[in-house]
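Example 996, ligand adenosine-5'-triphosphate.
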Amino acid sequence: MKASEKKAKEISKKAKEKQKTILESLKSHGAKIYEDLENGQFPKFSIPSRSVGNIVYDKKLRQYILGNSTALRSAKNSAQLRSFTQLMWLAFFANRLTQEKKSSTLRDVYYSSQAFAIEFDDQSESDNIIVDLEAVTSRPREDFHIFPEERSSIFGDLNIEYTIPGYEGKKMNLSNHPDGYSIGPSLTTAELVDTSAEIVIAIEKGGLFTRFVEEQVDKKFKSIIINTGGQAPRSTRTLLKRLHDEMGLPVIILTDGDVYGEHIAMVIKSGSANAAHLRELTVPDAKWVGVWATDIEKYKLPTIPMTESDIKRCYDLQKDPRYESGIWKKELQVFLRLKRKAELEAFAKYGLTNITDKYLPQKLELAKSL
Amino acid sequence: MSSIKEKFNQISPSEFFYSNRDLAGFSNPTRSLYTAVREFVENALDACDQKGILPDVHLTIKAVDPDKPDPKPYILTVKDNGPGVDAKHIPLAFGTVLYGSKFGLKQARGMFGLGATMAILYGQITTNKPVIVKSSTDAKIQNQFEILLDIQKNKPVIQKHTTKEISKKGLSVSICLEGDYSKAGNKIRDYVYETSLITPYATITFDDPKGQKFHHPRFVKEIPPPPTIIRPHPHGIDVERIRRMIVESQFEIPTIDDLMIEKVRKDLGLSKQNLSFTAIMTKAKKKWKNLSRQVRVVIALLSFLKMDFEKLSKIRIEDLDVPNKKLHYWDFGDSQSKTVDMDPESQYYKQLTNTVQGEPLTTFLTKRFQRVGPTTAVKFAEFAKFKPEKRMGTLTNQELVNLSDSLQKFDDFMAPDSSCLAPLGEEPLEKGIKKFFNPDFTAVVQRPASAYSGFPFIVEMGIAYGGDIKSGGPHVYRYANRIPLLYDEGSDVVLKVVNDTDWGRYKVKGDPPFIIVSHICSTRIPYKTAGKENVADRQEIERELRLALQFLSRKLAAFMSKKGQAEMAKKRANLYAKYIPMIAEFCTELAGKKKEPNYKKILEGLEPVEVKTEKTVKEEKPIESK
Ligand SMILES: Nc1ncnc2c1ncn2[C@@H]1O[C@H](COP(=O)(O)OP(=O)(O)OP(=O)(O)O)[C@@H](O)[C@H]1O
Ligand SMILES: [Mg+2]
């Protein structure tokens, strides 16, 4: 048997194992409900409470997690009956998806429900039930083959092997296509084989991503470049985490010089309160290197004034425990003092390649000491 | 029943009403046709009610020329099986305004004595045709009149008078008038329909101009007791009414004519004997106890005149001057006025002064008012700071005002006697509502009698929900003295009270299917206009309406919350029945089983809940139908 074949087998074995545990978990939940009904009782289960009061910041994990309080969901409660049934259907649907190794989007889920006479008022209702399923099973929806529509992209010297049906064992180098590869289910579930890169650069904007590719940042700085497309989708965060954990790559983040940019970095680093029920989405060691508020002054960047909502966002974030210290706290204060913000593109003032020629090297250097 | 002939009174000329016909509801062809129907139907029902006859009323409207467009002349005929009107009264009753038999203090639909005549007048003005009245009071002879009205003189002009043999009592009146049935039809049909709800003991038939027949047979066999004339209640009476009552109550010196003398002689047992003055007086003293008041007055006069019967028949009393103790009379024999002095010490003098000064206060109160007994009268006199024996004829203006004020303030009078009114009664009202609307819930109430301005009134009200009632309620059916009120809704006191109600508080929400039937009965309904369409908001009436509505609304609220609970339980059961099987289906596949779990046990476990709710609804029925 060739080495590659052996590897492929290993990979599919790993994937199968993961699939098995997921299916087991779904089955055990289903069996409990079945038993209740068979015994003539209203089925019930408990679910970690996602109410604001139960979302706490875990300093050790460096992310938001759910506290200990749980809520009982019972089919006896007529007010919960509908959402109970919706969740049961979703588990049933996720079970099929996982078994058949088919992927679907959030929107697909919403429409699929109609084939089963399960009514969701709108997609936000079905999205919410998906979060319920995540909370009950403590697994991200991606494990159940449910993916968001948003796509971000990746470029760099990284070899992967697909695990999705029909592509199992197929290899790919992610520097072959200059537009980058979109990060979807097949990429997030792929096996990360090897890489020559030494760092991952996550960048907020598609425009800059293209510039970075053009300027061969991947080669010049031995890096994998990821476009987060604004707030990083979960699949992207999963991939970032895997690149960090499995390939041992440090992750740095470049965002616009405003409060939203700062928070994009924070979510990659330590998750969002919305996903407090999940723990596999954070890269606690990731580093935000810019654009900082202090950079605006340091590099004399062209600025635009902050809006009302920018300012309000600053004050909101000041209440977040993660912003209580370090650069997070300091930069927020400077933003509030300046009341102005600057975009990544602002470096074009000094020439189109200034950002890759001057700024990036300085920041990469700096990152080592952060 | 009562055989007393209705007393006819004539008050004022037609011309005033001719120029004010808008007030009476004759403003245009549409409204006039409707009002004319009303006036005649109400007269027919009034007549039957008062004689305790189960009414059969037949209303016919026919176009003179069906092919003409509206407005056009119509012939309107209303026929009843009532007591009819005496031939000699017909020209006045139907040919003059303000001539009626219903001015006395009793409940009737008619009250102004002008309804019929206004309709006839309107017909005559618009078509120049006479009214045809056919009446039989004895089921043997029918009198037929064709009458035109002389508006200037308020006088009927008889065009034709014939009689014929007949076998049925009753009256029919027929006029030709300009009307617009295409516009008034709805209101007229509503009127007939609503009348049959509040007059369940009447059979009303309506043949409309398009050849349609609307037949509303009676569904109650007992006629409510006919109303009787009553005395006023002391509460809320005014100075003017007291003044008029005093005038009525003051005893007059009887006219001493031959008839009177005959009576005196008979009462003294002296019909055949011609006694001297002294012998008459001795006889009178002996018989005094048994003599009537009138005879006593004549004897008292005689005591000062010192005459025998022969002489007495030749004089006429001119004046009784109580302060100066003089009696003036005209002597036909001598053809001159004469005067005698009266001895104030004489017992006869007292008899005469009593007569002129009127009754003592307590007698006045007990005799002229309802609900005042001798004890109450004395208590009242004390309260009002009058001597109980104070003579009514001697009250000064200021004292009259004080008396009137005190009558209103004194709290110990009993509530007016409701037997003098003729409300429909809770039972027939409820029966009617159930028959008309087939509702899920009905409640009715009759408030105790109350009074405004000395006129007693009773509020009856019913509320019904669901069944055949259309949504968008409350739909209010207003009645006053068994008349449906269909026009001028905006300014009516009943609607004011209904609109003031916050139905949300009574768990009535959304577009509810419910109706309110309100009936005000009174000897005098305070209508805003002579058209009798809306009731003015007298504080006392408004209060009673509010209390009645509150009472019923609370009952409705109780029904609504029970209904709400039952609906909730049903909804819940439906939810389980819908979702539990789905949960079973999904978890079967999830758990990797082949057979679905036996979830039926859960649904069956719910069953008692459903059965229970149904039972509560059923049990509710007898409670509602109290
Ligand atoms: N169908 C009838 N049967 C017997 N009597 C009648 C009939 N119609 C009218 N009358 C007599 O004629 C009178 C005059 O009727 P009219 O309608 O003019 O006055 P009303 O009914 O007394 O008062 P209103 O103006 O309020 O109607 C009545 O009071 C009644 O005595
Ligand atoms: Mg009348």
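Summary: Residues 1-13, 607-626 of chain B have pLDDT under 50 and may be disordered.
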